[in-house]
Amino acid sequence: MSSAAVRDRMLAAGQRITRQRDVVAGVLERARRPLGAGEICDAVTTSDPDVGRATVFRTLHSLVAAEIVQRVTLAGGQSGYLLCAADGHHHHLVCTSCGRTTDLPEAVVAPFLSRVEETHGFTVDHSSFDVHGRCADCR
């Protein structure tokens, strides 16, 4: 997702565009895999030494709440962060070897959610799936 698209999503979510949010989003935009909070802090500090750790954590929290960034659980239970797809997609295949994250299409998940609603009388308001395993390259 481009920086302009991230800024548009921030505005649409009612978020102000700040230098700190721009820097954090830029780090995640360049990442090819989910990054841990510590990795994000290190990259942000390299890019802009005036942005502190607490600011990075607050920024991540607000971007997750606005569904611009998603928190995923990585191997070992560590949290990782990545930019959400433009459509707000929230389902991923996460490789436990290399950390690569691949979008899991809604078309794959939708029948399962329909079945959950039908079988359990449960109305799904929001869903997020992280399926862990090894990608084709790491198998």
Can you put this structure into words, describing what you see?
- The protein is an alpha+beta fold and 139 residues long.
- Helix 2 packs across helix 3 and helix 3 crosses helix 4.
- A hairpin with a 5-residue loop joins strand 1 and strand 2.
- The strands form two sheets. A three-stranded mixed beta sheet has the order 4-3-5, with no helix packed on it.
CATH level-4 homologous superfamily: Winged helix-like DNA-binding domain superfamily/Winged helix DNA-binding domain
- Sketch the topology as an H/E string, one letter per element: HHHHEEEEHE
Strand content: 15-25%
Mean pLDDT rating: 85
Number of strands: 5
Which architecture name does CATH use?
Orthogonal Bundle
Shape: globular
Total helical elements: 5
For the terminal residues, how far apart are their CA atoms? 28 Å
Name of the level-1 CATH class: Mainly Alpha
Radius of gyration: 16 Å
Topology:
Layout: H1 3-12, H2 19-30, H3 37-47, H4 53-65, E1 69-73, E2 79-83, E3 91-95, E4 101-103, H5 106-120, E5 129-133
Please give a quick description of this structure:
This protein has helices spanning 3-12, 19-30, 37-47, 53-65, 106-120; strands at residues 69-73, 79-83, 91-95, 101-103, 129-133. It is of the alpha+beta class and 139 residues long.
